[in-house]
Amino acid sequence: MTIVAQLGNPPIMSDSTQNPLPIVLASASPRRSELLRKASVPFDVEPANIPELERVGESPNDMVERLATEKALAVAKRVGANPRRRVLGADTIVVLDDDVLGKPRDADHAVELLLRLTGRSHRVLTGIAVVESATLRTRSLTVESRVSMRSASREELVAYVATGESLDKAGGYAVQGGARSFVTQIDGSETNVIGLPVAETLELLESTRDETPGAW
Q1: Residues 6 or more apart whose Cβ sits within 8 Å of residue 198
Q2: Whose CA is closest to 101, among 125, 68, 71, 67?
Q3: Tell me: the pLDDT tens digits for 110-128?
Q4: Which residues does the annotation mark as catalytic?
Q5: Rg (CA), the chain
Q6: Dihedral (C-alpha) 63, 72, 23, 211: value to the nearest 10 degrees?
Q7: Which domains does the chain have, with CATH numbers?
Q8: Tens digit of pLDDT for each residue in 149-190?
């Protein structure tokens, strides 16, 4: 399922929506952790550390949702059923003309990626999945945003990449950092572009809040 998210302030989880089942974030991303903390979500971190490989003939939407699910499943199996936990997995990609632009190999590659993106619009897709660690029941979805960037010279992009911000980001940029100066418009969830669509993630966590085994 794909959701095209709209801009707006994400809901904050209140005490009434806190699930007794602990939440584990299957990601080492500091950006995802920061977004969850800002949304007042308590969680532990257990990186999945699985290969993020694209399959032949697989659509970008299917890819991100599959990878998010694989990450959550890998960690859910690792942490086990006692105590039961909910594991949150996520995967974010940048898509231009149906080409998936992953993380740059090095600084030169980051500049080349940004040269493709600037002066145009592209899609950012994030798959999110929640897996219950005892039953391995899963719920997942994909959120899409569109980012438009102004034209930029190679010199500007080289200077940006030299900050070191690009190298662990899909598409080679961080919208919450220096790359904001290249962005002219975001249609959809800005937190999705950062790496975790907060409103949709909270909704997914809320839909899995029932602690009764097999409830979802």
Answers
A1: 10, 35, 36, 38, 39, 189, 191
A2: 125
A3: 999 999 999 999 999 999 9
A4: 91
A5: 17
A6: 100
A7: 20-207 (3.90.950.10)
A8: 999 999 999 999 999 999 889 999 999 999 999 999 999 999
